[in-house]
Amino acid sequence: MQMGMMGGGGGAGLGRLAGCNKLTIQQKVQMLEAVSMGCIEQPNSYDVFDQNNQKIFVVEEKSGQLTRCCCAPDHTLSLQVHQVDPMGNKVGGAMTIDRPGCVFDKPCIGNAALMDACLQEITVLPGIVEGDPGDLPKQMQMGGAKMPTLGGCTTPTLDIFDAQGAEVAKIEAGGTCPSVFGGCTEFCCDQPYNVMMNGQQIGAITKMKPKNMESAMAEMFTDADTFSMEFPPDLPVEQKARLLASLLLLDYMFFERDVDFCSMENG
């Protein structure tokens, strides 16, 4: 295994989060997946923008084709987060997000599981870490996120941990929109989540409904989604990185399940 672009306390690119109080995360449309109506599952990729609408990161999924096609969205994967310059070129590694998935790593993974072997979780590593997804070295981790037993029951929840394993925040579903993920609900209303620390809300994550015909068509025929995240500008960059990683896990947990407004059955 090869580890590169490491930085003290986090990847060098995480400095772009300093002073930032809002992120917009746009999942890219994969054309092969779109024309196949989701039958040919492609690795996810995302663009991340700051509060000034400046692209600061690109996120690229690394996963095996077999497990992705057979087990998505619960497949084993890693997400590499790269810093980009104003032209969109990669200029440094920010962090890597590692998630063990179904079959070998998590034989019964789910969103309302009882056993630890079935709980959704990620580990956040500084810099770009190369290796087998789901089995990246954890010694230099910045922390991670894990769903509690039963996933929070009627309130979907993620617990967020620091590098020492101490719980430092929670993400909880909130708002009045029904907790029914996929289908026409994604066209009708935003899906909100509250970021909680010490029992107080300090931020918010929103799965945003389509704002125009172009984004509506993208969601109608693909898994492409748009999220926003708000947090205090003085929050440590490592905590912001853990929140961004947790947002991406939420996308795989709830919004990648091929229950889009338009789908294909029986060929």
Q: How would you describe what is shown here?
A:
This protein is α+β, with helices and mostly antiparallel strands. Helix content is 16%, strand content 31%. The chain has 5 helices and 14 strands. The strands form 2 sheets. The chain has a 12-stranded antiparallel beta barrel. Strands 1-8 form a two-stranded antiparallel ribbon. A hairpin with a 5-residue loop joins strand 5 and strand 6. Mean pLDDT is 82; it is low at 1-9 and 259-267.
The span between the termini is: 41 Å
Low-confidence stretches: 1-9, 259-267
Q: Give, in order, the helices and strands.
A: EEHEEHEEEEEEEHEEHEH
Molecular shape: globular
Placed side by side, the strands forming the largest sheet appear as: 2-3-4-5-6-7-9-10-11-12-13-14
Structural class: alpha+beta
Topology, number of strands: 14
Averaged pLDDT, please? 82
Notable features of this structure?
267 residues, alpha+beta, 12-stranded antiparallel β-barrel, two-stranded antiparallel ribbon
Topology:
Layout: E1 3-4, E2 22-27, H1 31-35, E3 45-49, E4 55-62, H2 65-71, E5 77-84, E6 90-99, E7 121-126, E8 128-129, E9 143-146, E10 157-161, E11 167-173, H3 185-188, E12 191-197, E13 200-207, H4 213-221, E14 226-230, H5 237-254
Antiparallel strand pairs: 1-8, 2-3, 2-14, 3-4, 4-5, 5-6, 6-7, 7-9, 9-10, 10-11, 11-12, 12-13, 13-14
Please provide a brief summary of the model:
By secondary structure, this protein is α+β, with helices and mostly antiparallel strands. 16% of the residues lie in helices and 31% in strands. The protein contains 5 helices and 14 strands.
